[in-house]
Every structure is written in structure tokens, then in C-alpha cells.
Specification:
The complex is a heterotrimer of chains A (about 400), B (about 450) and C (about 400). With about 450 residues, chain B is mainly alpha-helical. Chain B has 16 helices and no strands. Chain B starts with 17 loop residues before the first helix and ends in a 16-residue tail after the last helix.
Chain lengths: ~400, ~450, ~400
């Protein structure tokens, strides 16, 4: 009956632990490599009898544990010091004693999960319910009260008759030949499976819809919708001015907003100084902002040559002796507060950009009134680089 | 002298054949539930229902349904949490620490104790979530890049708690499941019903009892025990730090970590004893879970109870020795203040009654043991109550002192948690092997080869 | 092999009594004498300083002695089997217990150098010390500590005498009796070691207190006692003074226990430090501030590394717990670190007494005497007694112990 099938191996049962240990020793000394012992509980000394080396699973645990510890320590520090810096209880950003508990827990969790997953899925290759040993009389016995040994056909030395006689000599009982199960065909696109998929899809979609659109609007999940709160334009019965909307307390400053303290001051020469260095990057930024906001009136080169020239009000030249004599702080104040008909540009131009514009204006002014040394500098640069500096 | 120290005592009385053990352990699973079982399930289910209703009321109306007030912002909720976490410690202690100490008597009770651990931690884990009043926001405790751009405060012991309890639950489950795999295989191979067989096949993962697997399996079991041991200590340590990092007198004490751990083992063992006394009777397992087991457990209860007593004494001494008036006041207030009644219940149940276990007769008397272990559970619940409520109700500012009176909803949730715990236990006892089949077989007399170990010489 | 009075056969342990090499006793004696001479010299140079050094070494010795006695009683009380072959070694190592009282006498005479609360002017000006004066006063201090040393010595005599008697009589009732004494000792030990630690170490820092402190010293004591037992057991077993039946399984258990107590110490020390660091209360944090200034910062960090990280990593692998060389190295390491810990516990309090601290040769004179004393007592006892508890009924099970 089984003749046309693939032989997996020959199995025998033994009654006592001593017999099976002895059998394992003999089978090993006969030179077999592909054989296995199945016992209802782990037998001491069986690893030696089978000549198995001790398990190396400990290294998985060790590696996973150290990796997890390093990661979580870094992660906690990163969240609290880099991602969203927060000082808590006056503790330092890298508060090691306070990090120890979570580091420990995370290390254990990762080590345990990696070890168990590694053992079951990688080393044992489980789940494996189609193994030929399953559903045999042999498996039923070793699961309960017998000790079994199976020599596999995959072994080089395996010969059916010899294996059977070897097991018989060792005192094995119920010798059983075990065959691979017949391959079963499982079509993926069976009608039943497709119906099942459709039902799952409808249930998931419907469930999600009901949860998100109906369930979440029922109490108590509607606490966000029906909370007691003051609406901006509503009438209040509580405040004396009958407004729900409240003005901020005097002196309130918005986050990231630094008030400009020299609002009504005409000349801020003494208190404001250019914080930026005239690097290429800053000058580029100043040029960009100058051409956007200043050039429509003052002209592309700051000489007042704009389309407003000759009209009123026309942007004055920035190369007059008066303007050249302005301090940086004064120009800053003019951009911030405006002057005469020029409006305030504080809303359009950030602080840094204002200073960058001032730097750029200084460059334009210097270009209009160069010093003799500037020309020598350019000559020297040309000599060194061998090309035209104006490029 | 009657006692002979030179021979090892048998762990299982009568040394039954292996197949009989299978039948005995699988019997509760294979038979239909009896009338008594159904009645018991109805009672625990009823308690669970009461708890569910009270939790529902809390979620709907808010935690104003409880007796909590300011300054007593933590009361029954956190008391129950710490109580259940404590109960959850015995299981891992029995399965991991006693495993490492090679105390083979643990095999009879390990599986059951592990299951109790998991159920107790489930009960415990619910309370911090219930106690926030808005459980649907609990997801923010998990560190993930959320839309607010902020992270949990990793310096807060409450976040440590989230990590500790969830790690403990996960590791306990994994530990438990790894132990169950060979038993599922045994159940699979003796099942005749096709549905049962399929279920057991799925859970056994196709385990083949192969020695090439046992080798790694035993090693990993050892590693898991080694990792679970510090873990179980860390969990109650972290719970104790919820209190001890605060500067509140009565909470800020350096002995809290070992003291809490000892208390947890104490209460956990008492709960395991309580349940086992019934289980061994109902399922006819008196020769597997023997009188010796119960006596050993009683000895551990005595030991840990004495450790708790040591901590009480040191606390008293140190509150005086410290010279801090607040410390001394808190200690005196606990014993003689408005919560004095709770304090003396705690002291008598935790320190005085367990001392009766010094007597061998009492250790080996089941009715007396049952009474004492139940008292221990009562006492340990009150210990947490005393620590939390008495310290909070009278802190630094006398004008804000406030007495806490529990409401019916408070009691409902407490009873509900017992309902949940015992319901899960009953379901477990009827659906899974309550004793580890593969382990108990390994410790029978004659189960191991007679000349093993000689190879160690090499 | 000794004959028994009752004529019962001696337990087959394979033990043949061999004399230890004679020079062991000589080495011990000469170390002891050398340490005493150097120590006395240091006392003549700077009595205040020498008092602190002496207390450091005294704490070191008490940890070894009483820790070993605790191991003996723990074996009885827990019914442990695998450790029976090593019990005699722990017994010999606890031989210093009866000498504690004599060795404490120099400290009793130098209390004014050590404890600020012995100074009436300091107490009068300090509310906390005034309150503590009910407990911390010289007569009560001496009475209770003398009482503790006497009780320890009594338990030492009873337990050890019974154990030796069993070698001859093989009487199992002796085990029963010793179990009872051991349990009584453990109960008393829990409180007495706490009082010892509070009195001799905690009270040196005037305002500081920590409820876990007794447990801290307990973890230290058991740790170092295990290290001494391991070192002696491995050395003796290797050279054939015990029996050939001692296997790697026994070594493994010793290594595991050392590992466990390494972790236990880290747990207790961390719990104490973290809670006081976190709360940052002035009366508590002062203790760690003292130990975080100047050279103490280095010593504190060194303690974390040497007391926890190094032995922890060293003893993790199974192979190192069964390797005699690594075990001996770990044991010596632990003994040295334990001295460092005693140093860390005692010496920073010099500042509280108005002295300035710097590391000095004087601190290393007395520990020579401690080591010498232990070796000398060991060789003395080994001459008279068996190195193996051959009368113990659990011995065979202990020797057959397999993992």
C-alpha cells in the first residue's frame, strides 16, 4: 500500500529511559547522522548520548539584549534632548538613573521575544504540521509514555532492512515505516475562498465606517464635540463685557515672537548693531530681499532709478551722503517702522532678512563710491585665479 | 528522630504510570463541566458583570463616581492596581526563580501559578487605564511619533510602569506559552475529536518531542527563567517607585523596592495557596499537588511575611531616627490617625497571623491555612490602601486634609476585578492542562536514566 | 577515615584528610603580624586617620565573618543539598566571629574620632542630633553592639560545634537541631546586621538616613563571603584536599550565586541612589554629594564598574561559571572590591569630623592583617578538623548533585 510512496524513515519505540539512551549511543556509533530521538519529556544525558553540542541560543539573547539597551538609551535621550527638548524636575537631559528602569524592561522584552522567536521559527522551523511523523502511531506513543528513535532515509548509510534489524537488535518495539504524506493541491482562487475574502472586506470596511462615522460620535467619545467652551463671536453671560472672546492679558507675548522695543524711536544708532557677517550667503539673501521689497521704489541699484522716478512720492537714492552716513541701526529702524511715506516692512521682512538687506545696501554703496584699494584687490584676485572677478 | 535527610522525598505520591498522568491532567478538559462548575462560573461571572457596569458608569459619568478627592487623588484604583500586580508575582517566582534554584517541587504548581500571574496582571493593567477616566487616550503612553510632536516623559515613574507592566505581561505570556507547546502536542496526539485536534495542532505548532528540539528548548527555558527573575523583581520595584520617588512622607523611603517585592511574593503565594486548595480537591490532584507543596508554600509565606514585618519595623525606627517631623507625623498618623483601623488590620493580617506558620501543625492543616492565606490577602490589600490613602489624606498642608470614603462604584469595581480574575481561572482550568504534563513526567521516580551525569567528568 | 561510635558506615564521600601545607599558617601569621605592626605605626602617626582606616577594615572583616556564618545557616534553613561539601569551608571562614568583640575594643576607645554625635557641643547645637541622642549615645551604643557581637559568637559556637560533632556521631538529630538554630540565627541576623550598619556606618553622616541601608550591608556581606568560600573551595578541590566527586555542577552553582549577589547588590545600591538622587532632599543628598566631590567621584564611578559591571559581564557565560581559573579570579576581584566598598562607606565621613581626606598608605595596613587573620584561622582549624562535613546526612546527595 505504501510502496509507491516516499520513505521518510524507520521508527522504533522503547520502554525505559536507559534503553533509549543506550539505543541512541549505538545508533550514533553506527555512523548515522540523520536520526532523532523523541521523548515525552527531556531526558538528562541524551545530548551526550546523541553527541549534540550544547545550545547556542544564549548568543541570540545576549546580542538582542545589548542591541536593545543601546537603542533605547539613545532613543530616550534623543526624545528628551533633541526632538522636543524638555527639562523635567531639574534633571539633566541624559538622566541616566531615570533611564535605567525603561532600559532594563526594554532589554528584557527584546531579548525574550528574539530568543523565543529565533528558537521556534528559525531553529525549529515551526509551525510544521505536515511533518511525516505526525498522525503516526509512533508520535502518539512518544507523546505519552514511550521513548522513540527514528532513523531517517535521508542518511547516507540508510538501508531499509539494515535499519530495521539494527533497531530490532537494540530492543525496539513496534517498528514502523514512516512515509511522506501525499502532496495535496490547494488552489488559491476557489469560489469559497473568494466569497470569504469578500465577506471579510465588507465586514472590515463596514466596521471601520460605523466605528469612525457613527460610533465615535456617540457618548462618551464625543467629548471633543460637546465640550463646554467659549466660542469667538458668542455672547457671554459670565464676563462683564458679555464677550466670550477674551483679549490676552496685558504684556502677553506670543510664542517665538520677540517684541521690537524701539517702536517710537527715530534713531536707534546707539542700541542696534548688525549681528551678521557679510558672507556670500548673507549678501545673496540681502540681494534677493532687496530686489523684492526695496527695488520697486529705490531702484535695482539703490540709486532711486525706479519706475517712480520723477513722480511723487519717489524713492530717494541710497547713495546720498546723508544715507551713506546712516548707521546700520538707523536703517534697520527705518525698515522696521517706516519713514515719511515709506511704510513699515516688519511684517514682510524678518529680522535676519532686514540685517541682510542692510549688508547688501552697504555693498551697493561701496560699489558706487569705491576706494582705490578695491581695484588693487580685484587685480590681485584676478592674478591669483586667472579669471575675471566680475564673473 | 523520624526525619531522614539522606534521601530525597518523592515529589508525586504513588508514582503513577505516565499514561495515567495524561488522563488525569486532561480529564478536566475532556469532560463536560459539572453542575458545581457552572454555579461557580455564574457567581464569578456575576461579579464580573457588576464590575463591568461600574466601569461603564465611570466612563460615562467620569471618575466623580468614586470617592476620590483632592488630596486623595489615588485611592481604590491604584490600591487595586498594586494589589493585583503583587498577586501576579507569585507565578513567575514559582516558575522562574524556583526553577533556577532547582526546586523540583515547583513542577506540580508552576503552570497554575503562571496562569494566575497572567490573569492577575491583566486585572492590574486595567486599573491605571480605568483610573485615567478616559481610557481611549491611553495610546499616548506609547512612544510613537504622534501629531503633537511630543513624547512620553521617560523620566516619570508612571511611564516606567507602563513599560514594566506591559513587558511583564508579554514575557509571562511567552513563558507560559513556551511551556504549553509540548503539552499541546500531547493533547493533540490523544485527541479523538477533529475540531479539538485541529485547535491543538495549531497551538502545538507541530511540536514533535524531538530531542534535537528539547536541547534548545531546555536552554531557552533556562534563559527565559533567568530573564524573568530580574524582571519580576523589577516590576514591583517600579511600582514601588511610583510612590518612592515622590517627596511625600510615607512614600519616600529607600527600602520600598525590596519591601514591595517581598510583599508581592507574600500576597501572591497566599493567592496561589487559596486557589490550589480548591483545585487539588475538585480535580482529584491531591497526590500531585501534595500537602508538602502547601507546607513549603506556607514556609515561603512565613518568610516573606517576616520580611514585610522587618520593613514595618525599620520604617518606624527610621521615621523617628530621621529627625524629620513630617516623617514621624505620617507614621504616627498611620497607626493612630483616622485610618488607624486600616493600619491595624494590615499589621495583624500581615505580621501576626502568618507567624502562626511557625507551628508545623498549623502549616499542615488545610482549614487553618485557608483562613490565614485569605487573611494575608486582605492584609496586603490594606497595606496598599494604607500606604496610598493615609499618606495622601494628610500631607504637608493641613488646610487641604481630607478623608476618603469609598462609594458603591469603588466597591463594585474591586469586586469586578475579583470576578474577572476567578472567571479567567475557571475558564483556564477547564480548557488547558493545569499541570505541566512534560515537566511532571520528568520528575517522576525512574523518569531519568540511572547513570546520567557521568559524562560530566569529561 | 574516622571511625564512628555507633559503628555505622561513614558516608562514602571519597574524602581522605590531608594536611594543608605548613607554610599557609606561617603566611597567615606573618601577614597578621605585619598588618598589626604597620597599623600600630599609622595609629601613632595620626590616630584620627587610623581610626577610620581601622573601622574600614573592621567592616570588611565583619562582612566576611558574619556573611560566612549566614551562608552556613542558610544551607541548614533552606535544606540546600549541593552546598554541603563546601559548608565546612564557610564554617572556617566565619572563625573570626568570636573575635569581633575584642577587635571592636580599639574602636570603642576611639569613638570620638569617628562619630560627630559623641561630641556634646555638636549635639547641643543640632536639633536632629539632639533627638537622636536617645539612641546615639555612647553607653547604649556600646551595650547594644557588645550584645550583638556576643550573640553572634554564641550562634557561631553552637552551629559549628554541632556540625563538627556530626562528623563523629553521624547523628541526624544534629541536623534537625542546627536547622532550628539556623532559623533563629537568620531572624536575629536580619535585625542585628541592620543595627550594626546603622550604628557603625550610617550614624557617621550626621543627618543622613536610608531605610535600605541594612539590606545594603547584607548584600555586601553575603557577596564577599561567597567569594571567599568559592576561592577556598575551588583552590582546595583543585589540589585534591576535598574529594574528586566535586564537579563542574558545584562550581556552576557557586558561580551562579556570586553572579546573583552581584546583581542583588546593584539592585539595592541603585534603589538607594536613584531614590535619593530623584527626590534631591537636602538631608539625603548630602551623602552622595560627599561621595561625588574630588577623588570620591572617581572612587564612586570605579565602584559602579568594579562592583557591578565587571563581575556581571565576567560571570554571565555558563563556561566562566564552570572554569576554575575564572572563578578564582572573580573571587579575588570581589574580595578586593568589597574592601573598596567598605572604604567608600566609611572614609568619606572624615569630612564630617573636620578632617580632610586624601588617599594614604595607612588605609592599606589593616586589611593586610584582616587577610592574614582569616588565612591563619583557616589553617589552624583545617589542621584539627575535616575539610568536608563527612557526617552530614545530606553529603552524598550533595556530592551527587547534578544540574
Amino acid at each position: 500500500m505504501h510502496n509507491d510512496k516516499n520513505l521518510f524513515g524507520v521508527a522504533a519505540l522503547f520502554d525505559t529511559p536507559d534503553e533509549i539512551i543506550n539505543a541512541a549511543k549505538k545508533v550514533k556509533s553506527s555512523g548515522f547522522k540523520y536520526y532523532d530521538v523523541n521523548t515525552p519529556y527531556p531526558l538528562h544525558g541524551m545530548d551526550d548520548a546523541m553527541g549534540l553540542k550544547s545550545s547556542k541560543m544564549g548568543y541570540v539573547t545576549l546580542f538582542a539584549g545589548f542591541a536593545a539597551a543601546a537603542f533605547i538609551l539613545f532613543f530616550m535621550w534623543w526624545t528628551i534632548a533633541i526632538s522636543y527638548p524638555l527639562v523635567i524636575g531639574g534633571k539633566p537631559f541624559f538622566a541616566l538613573p531615570a533611564f535605567v528602569p525603561i532600559t532594563f524592561e526594554f532589554t528584557v522584552l527584546t531579548a525574550v521575544l528574539s530568543t523565543v522567536f529565533g528558537m521556534i521559527a528559525v531553529v525549529f522551523n515551526l509551525p510544521f504540521n505536515s511533518h511525516p511523523l505526525h498522525d503516526t502511531n509512533y508520535m502518539k506513543k512518544v507523546s505519552s509514555d514511550k521513548y522513540g528513535l527514528v532513523i531517517e532515509a535521508a542518511d547516507e548509510l540508510f538501508e531499509e532492512d539494515k535499519a530495521v534489524s539494527l533497531l530490532k537488535d537494540l530492543g525496539g518495539k513496534d517498528i514502523e515505516k514512516i512515509y511522506y504524506p501525499e502532496k495535496e493541491e490547494h488552489k488559491i482562487f476557489q469560489p469559497r475562498f473568494l466569497v470569504f475574502l469578500a465577506v471579510v472586506a465588507i465586514l472590515t470596511a463596514g466596521g471601520t465606517y460605523v466605528t469612525l462615522n457613527k460610533f465615535m460620535y456617540l457618548p462618551p467619545f464625543d467629548f471633543m464635540l460637546n465640550q463646554n467652551k467659549g466660542l469667538a463671536q458668542a455672547k457671554s453671560t459670565f464676563f462683564y463685557d458679555e464677550r466670550e472672546m477674551r483679549t490676552p492679558v496685558e504684556g502677553t507675548v506670543a510664542r517665538h515672537f520677540i517684541p521690537y522695543a524701539y517702536q517710537s524711536q527715530a534713531d536707534t544708532t546707539e542700541v542696534l548693531a548688525d549681528p551678521l557677517l557679510p558672507t556670500q550667503k548673507i549678501l545673496k539673501l540681502g540681494q534677493e530681499k532687496f530686489l523684492t521689497f526695496c527695488s520697486p521704489c529705490h531702484g535695482d541699484y539703490g540709486d532711486g532709478n525706479s519706475r517712480l522716478m520723477g513722480q511723487f512720492p519717489a524713492g530717494p537714492t541710497l547713495h546720498s551722503d546723508r544715507v551713506t552716513g546712516f548707521s546700520d541701526g538707523r536703517i534697520y529702524n527705518i525698515i522696521t517702522n517706516g519713514q515719511n511715506v515709506m511704510p513699515s516692512y516688519a511684517r514682510q521682512i524678518t529680522r535676519e532678512q532686514r540685517w541682510a538687506i542692510i549688508n547688501y545696501i552697504r555693498v551697493l554703496q561701496r560699489a558706487q563710491n569705491p576706494k582705490p584699494s578695491d581695484f588693487t584687490d580685484i587685480k590681485e584676485i584676478n592674478k591669483e585665479s586667472g579669471q575675471n572677478a566680475s564673473n | 528522630m523520624t526525619k531522614d535527610y539522606s534521601v530525597e522525598l518523592a515529589l508525586i505520591e504513588g508514582n503513577p504510570p505516565l499514561r495515567e498522568l495524561d488522563d488525569l491532567i486532561a480529564a478536566p478538559i475532556d469532560t463536560r463541566p459539572s453542575h458545581k462548575y457552572n454555579i461557580a462560573l455564574a457567581i464569578t461571572g456575576g461579579l464580573l458583570l457588576i464590575g463591568a457596569i461600574c466601569v461603564g458608569l465611570t466612563f460615562y459619568y467620569g471618575i466623580g463616581m468614586w470617592g476620590n478627592n483632592i488630596p486623595v487623588a489615588w485611592a481604590f484604583d491604584i490600591t487595586n492596581f498594586v494589589f493585583w500586580v503583587g498577586i501576579g508575582h507569585a507565578g513567575t517566582l514559582i516558575s522562574a526563580i524556583l526553577y533556577l534554584l532547582r526546586q523540583q517541587w515547583r513542577t506540580g504548581i508552576a503552570r497554575f501559578a503562571e496562569a494566575m500571574t497572567i490573569f492577575a496582571v491583566i486585572c492590574a493593567g486595567l486599573f491605571p487605564i480605568i483610573h485615567t477616566g478616559r481610557p481611549w487616550l491611553a495610546g499616548y503612553l506609547i512612544p510613537y511619533p504622534n501629531q503633537h510632536g511630543i513624547w512620553p516623559n521617560f523620566i516619570s515613574p508612571l511611564v516606567w510602569d507602563v513599560f514594566a507592566v506591559s513587558t511583564y505581561l508579554t514575557v509571562s505570556l511567552v513563558f507560559w506559552y513556551v511551556g504549553l507547546i509540548p503539552d499541546f502536542a500531547t493533547l493533540r496526539d490523544r485527541a479523538t475529536n477533529k475540531i479539538k485536534k485541529t485547535i491543538y495542532s495549531v497551538f502545538s505548532l507541530g511540536w514533535r518531542h524531538s530531542n534535537r528540539h528539547w536541547k534548545h528548548y531546555e536552554k531557552v527555558y533556562m534563559i527565559l527563567a533567568g530573564l524573568a527573575t530580574p524582571l519580576v523583581l523589577s516590576v514591583h520595584t517600579v511600582v514601588s517607585w511610583d510612590f518612592a520617588v515622590a517627596v511625600l512622607p510615607g512614600w519616600h523611603s529607600t527600602i520600598f523596592p525590596p519591601y514591595f517585592v517581598a510583599g508581592a511574593i507574600f500576597s501572591g503565594f497566599a493567592m496561589v495557596s487559596t486557589v490550589l486548595i480548591f483545585v487539588r480537591k475538585v480535580f482529584d490532584m491531591e497526590h500531585i499537588i501534595t500537602m508538602d507543596h502547601l507546607e513549603k508554600m506556607n514556609k515561603i509565606i512565613l518568610l516573606t511575611g517576616s520580611m514585610v514585618g522587618y520593613a514595618y519595623i525599620i520604617e518606624w525606627f527610621m521615621s523617628w531616627y530621621s529627625g524629620t517631623p513630617f516623617e514621624l507625623f505620617t507614621t504616627l498618623n498611620r497607626a493612630f490617625g483616622p485610618y488607624g483601623w486600616a493600619y491595624w488590620i494590615m499589621v495583624s493580617c500581615n505580621v501576626f497571623f502568618p507567624q502562626l506558620f511557625w507551628f508545623k501543625k498549623i502549616r499542615r492543616s488545610i482549614p487553618v491555612t485557608l483562613v490565614i492565606v485569605i487573611l494575608v490577602n486582605v492584609g496586603m490589600w490594606f497595606e496598599r490602601f494604607v500606604i496610598i490613602v493615609s499618606s495622601l489624606s494628610r500631607d504637608f498642608l493641613p488646610s487641604s486634609w481630607h478623608y476618603f470614603t469609598p462609594t458603591l462604584v469603588d466597591f463594585g469595581i474591586l469586586f469586578g476585578s475579583f470576578g474577572l480574575f476567578f472567571t479567567l481561572i475557571l475558564l483556564f482550568a477547564k480548557s488547558l492542562p493545569v499541570i505541566s504534563i512534560s515537566e511532571i513526567k520528568g520528575v517522576l521516580q525512574g523518569a531519568q536514566p540511572s547513570h546520567h551525569g557521568d559524562e560530566h567528568d569529561a | 577515615m574516622p571511625q564512628t561510635e555507633s559503628g555505622k558506615p561513614v558516608v562514602e564521600s571519597g574524602y581522605v584528610k590531608k594536611e594543608l601545607p605548613k607554610n599557609i599558617g606561617t603566611i597567615g601569621m606573618s601577614l597578621l603580624v605585619l598588618g598589626i605592626i604597620l597599623g600600630t605605626a599609622s595609629y601613632l602617626i595620626d590616630p584620627a586617620r587610623a581610626s577610620f582606616s581601622y573601622l574600614t577594615s573592621f567592616v570588611f572583616l565583619v562582612c566576611i565573618g558574619i556573611g560566612s556564618l549566614f551562608l552556613v545557616s542558610l544551607e541548614y534553613a533552606a535544606g540546600a543539598v549541593w552546598s554541603v561539601p563546601f559548608r565546612r569551608i564557610s564554617e572556617f571562614l566565619s572563625a573570626s566571629v568570636p573575635f569581633f568583640l575584642i577587635l571592636a575594643l580599639p574602636l570603642f576607645f576611639n569613638m570620638h574620632n569617628l562619630f560627630i554625635w559623641t561630641n556634646p557641643a555638636a549635639v547641643a547645637g543640632d536639633a536632629v542630633l539632639r533627638q537622636r541622642a536617645t539612641y546615639l549615645n555612647i553607653p547604649f551604643f556600646i551595650i547594644r553592639d557588645v550584645l550583638i557581637f556576643v550573640i553572634w559568637a554564641i550562634f557561631y559556637y553552637v552551629l559549628i560545634k554541632n556540625s563538627r560533632k556530626q562528623d563523629l556521631t553521624l547523628d541526624q538529630s544534629i541536623t534537625t537541631r542546627n536547622i532550628k538554630f539556623s532559623i533563629a540565627f537568620i531572624v536575629i541576623f536580619a535585625f542585628s546586621i541592620s543595627i550594626f550598619s546603622f550604628d557603625w556606618m550610617m550614624s557617621m553622616t550626621p543627618h543622613w538616613f536610608s531605610t535600605i541601608f541594612g539590606v545594603y550591608l547584607f548584600s555586601d556581606a553575603v557577596w564577599v563571603a561567597l567569594a571567599f568560600t568559592t576561592f577556598a573551595a575551588v583552590t582546595l578541590a583543585e589540589r585534591g584536599y576535598l574529594t574528586s566527586k566535586i564537579k563542574k555542577d558545584h562550581y556552576y552553582s557557586l558561580g551562579t550565586l556570586m553572579f546573583a549577589f552581584t546583581v542583588f547588590w546593584a539592585y539595592i545600591a541603585f534603589a538607594q541612589y536613584m531614590l535619593q538622587w530623584y527626590a534631591n532632599l537636602p538631608e539625603e543628598i548630602v551623602y552622595f554629594q560627599q561621595r561625588w566631590t574630588g577623588v570620591w567621584k572617581i572612587i564612586s564611578l570605579a565602584l559602579v564598574i568594579t562592583h557591578f559591571i565587571v563581575p556581571f559581564l565576567l560571570l554571565i557565560p555558563r563556561s566562566s561559571k564552570t572554569n576554575p581559573k575564572i572563578l578564582k579570579f572573580a573571587a579575588i576581584w570581589i574580595i578586593a572590591v568589597q574592601f573598596l566598598d567598605s572604604y567608600w562607606l566609611v572614609m568619606p565621613s572624615m569630612v564630617d569630623n573636620g578632617l580632610t581626606f586624601h588617599i594614604s598608605w595607612m588605609d592599606f595596613t589593616f586589611p593586610i592583617a584582616v587577610i592574614g587573620l582569616i588565612i591563619y584561622l583557616f589553617s589552624l582549624l583545617a589542621k584539627k578538623n575535616n575539610l568536608l562535613a563527612i557526617g552530614d546526612p545530606k553529603l552524598k546527595r550533595g556530592l551527587d548533585f547534578r544540574l
